């Protein structure tokens, strides 16, 4: 799993690329504060090598909680900037700092 950030100098956004290896999975999404936890808005595309990948614009200067949903299973990104306990979910979420 990985998260890559590309800051845009001329805009108040950061292009964030989420990728997760899930060769056996049929679908994957990234959900979080930046897309209202909506799997449809965070759908990732499956590449030939079995990695799911997607690029999203998020506002700079913020912190976002997120998770991956891989075939209906919620998964944290082990390379996240940090982790935060979420009372609503009753579990830790990955955190993205931009």
From TrEMBL:
GO terms for biological process: carbohydrate metabolic process. It comes from the Bacteria. Residues 15-72 form the Glycoside hydrolase family 13 N-terminal domain. InterPro entries: Glyco_hydro_13_N, Ig-like_fold, Ig_E-set. One of its GO terms (molecular function) is hydrolase activity, hydrolyzing O-glycosyl compounds. It holds the Pfam family CBM_48. This is Isoamylase early set domain-containing protein.
């Amino acid at each position: 799993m990985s998260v890559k950030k590309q800051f845009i100098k001329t805009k108040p956004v950061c292009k964030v690329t989420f990728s997760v290896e899930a060769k056996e999975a049929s679908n994957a999404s990234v959900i979080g504060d930046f897309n209202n936890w909506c799997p449809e808005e965070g759908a990732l595309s499956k590449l030939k090598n079995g990695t799911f990948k997607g690029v999203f614009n998020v506002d700079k200067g913020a912190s976002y909680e997120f998770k991956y949903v891989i075939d209906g299973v919620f998964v944290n990104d082990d390379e996240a900037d940090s982790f935060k306990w979420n009372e609503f979910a009753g579990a830790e979420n990955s955190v993205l700092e931009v």
